[in-house]
Structures are given as C-alpha cells and as structure tokens.
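Before going further, it is useful to explain how the protein records used in this thesis are read. An example of such a record is reproduced below.

***
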Amino acid sequence: MMAFRYLRSRRREAFISIISWLSFFGIMLGVATLIIVMAVMNGFRTELLDKILGINGHLVVQPQDTDLTDYNAITKRVEGVDGVTFVVPFVEGQILASGAGGSSGALVRGLTEESLKKLKAVSSKVLQGTFSDFDASEGVALGSRLARTLGVVVGDKVKLISPNGAVTPMGVAPRIKAYPVKAVFEIGMSEYDSTFIFMPLEYAQAYFNQEGKVSAIEVYVEDPDEVGVLRAPVEEAVNQQVFITDWRFRNVTFFSALEVERNLMFIILTLIILVAALNIISGLIMLVKDKGNDIAILRTMGATRASIMRIFMITGAAIGFIGTMAGFILGLVVCLNIESIRQFVSWMTSTELFSPELYFLSKLPADMDMTETVSVLLIALVLSFLATIYPAWRAATLDPVEALRYE
C-alpha cells in the first residue's frame, strides 16, 4: 500500500513523478527497441538463409580430376544416402542477356524440369507462364527483376551471348542465340531475381559446349545444420575424386558478419535499458530524501528496516515491471505489423526505407525468438530490481532522530 501510494505523487512531488515517468518510458522504449531490432535481425537472417538455401544446394559436388559425365548414376547413389532429400545436377555459365528494353549480365543454370520443380523457392514463385513441358520447350525462365531490366514478358525472346562459343580459325567466336521466355519467377531476393536464368539441362549443355556432362551436383538435405555429418557419406556415394563444399563454407563471411552485428546491437541497445534503470535510482533517491520525515515516523511507530526497504524496492520494481511489460506489448505489436509500418512510413516520407537492392529482400522481415525475448525481459527486470537496492538501503538506514530533529 505504501509503495503504490508513493508512486502517486502530489503536486509538491511533481518533479519526482516526472523522473518516474521518464524511467517508465525509458524502460518501455528500451525493451521494445531491443525486441524489435533482434526480431528484424533474426528475420533478416532466416529469410536470407531460406532464399540462399532454397536455390543453392546444402552440399555442392564439383569435379576435380575428371568431368562429371556419369551424373545420373551419381544422383541415384547420393539420393540413397540417409538424410538427403533430393539431388540436382546442373550446368552453369555466365552470359550477357539482351532484350527489347536493355541488356544485363546474368547467370544461366541448366536444370531438368524434375529438378526445377523440386526447388520450391523457384517453382512455387512463378509470376507469369509455367514450368510445364520445360524440358521440351527450348524456353528459359527469368527472374522478375531481370525480366523488367530486359523489357520482356512471357512469349518474348531473349538473346543470350556467351564469350565461350565455337572455336574457329580466327579464334573463339561468341555464341549468340535467342530463346523464348517461358516463365517469370520472383524468389523475393533481389540478387537472385535480377541474375538467374533457368534453361533446360539438355539445351544448356549444348549452349555451353558441355554435352554429356554437368558443371556440378547440388545435394539438398533434411537438416542444413547437419551437412558436416553427411559430407563423408555423400563423398563415399559419389565414388570418384571430387571437391565438396557446404553452404556454411560458401557463405561464412556473410553470416559471420550478420552474427557479429546482431550481438553488437544487442549489447548497445541493452545500454538504453541500463540508462532507464539509472533513472529509477535517481528518482528513488530523491523520493527517499523527500519522504525522510515519513520514514522516521514509520520507524518510531515500529516499522522495521526490512519493511522500509521493501516499500522502496517495490516502488522501483513496479516502475521496472510495468515498463518492461509495456515494452514487450509495444515490441510485439510492431513486430507483427512491421511491413505495414514500413510501407506507411515510406508513404508518409516519400522515401524507400528498405531498398531491395541494398538489403537483398523485397519485404522487411521480423522473427521473434522466444528465448531471446525472454532474455530481454529478464535483463530489464533484473536491472530494474538492482536499481532499487541502493535507494531502498538508504531509506532503511535513515536515522529517525536525525530526520525529526528540526521538525
């Protein structure tokens, strides 16, 4: 009762009340900011991981001494390994793509229709056209951003120019060939949507002078985190000299940078909560000084030091608890509506807050991790509680005689 009465200030205690409100808002905004930033960074990592692993294999088998000519037999053997979901042999090469609206560098990947349909990140994101009869169509599938750059739609023709063409007495002549656009897809990652062109495997082999062989074989597994365990069984199933890399090795710099940034942001934003906790200390110290006479009277009436300490600890802890819960609710609401908020702010300011070209993703993601969120709440509650100890101890050790001497 006493603790909550002290939270409701009278007119002469307005300044103390202002400090309490500042502490409340500081903790609320600190907790909300920390939850939102961590959720956005988690979502950013998850979305990037899904997009990268959705179109690139978890393990990549590349030829070392001999070409991968028996890729069909290798595919069947590797698919028999426990933990492997499917295997995709492909031919890959860089080209210059040209259309009615312009030209751009691109990466052609030759796949069979069966393999392409297994890549749900591509086959489930078709905006125009279809992948039906892809093997026999002699057509290509483009990313949506690349299609806009080239100014083509389904049915138009796109010209592919490769520097590695036919060998002539005058040297290597560039290979130029036009293909009809059979489908346009949008993975949601700008780097892929503006780069990838999928072509039937047979035609890609002919275009890149790799008849009867493939550039590499991608292996997709049930649990991407277990690629280290599956490397040896896959190498044994291939049964020839090959070079095997996994997704962690190929993207180690990128994801390590994300992890470092995420940890630093957590530490930096925790300082906001610490500053708010220091406001609790200053507010309680001023409250103890203002309530010195009340404390002395309570002590003379029989209140123990422990009870006085409890009063002020509850007062400060209440500010921290309510601020933490309010911050959690605010952070949850923002995370659930993060993309709508981004679009609204972009519309209000007439600016692009989340450029797909810079951040690779077309939407701002947010993925709240339960363990991380609970950690943020516990940190805020612990800091708020620790902030009450010194002011409460000062109140408990106040000498009643000294406090009432001049009354």
Remarks:
- The mean pLDDT is 81.
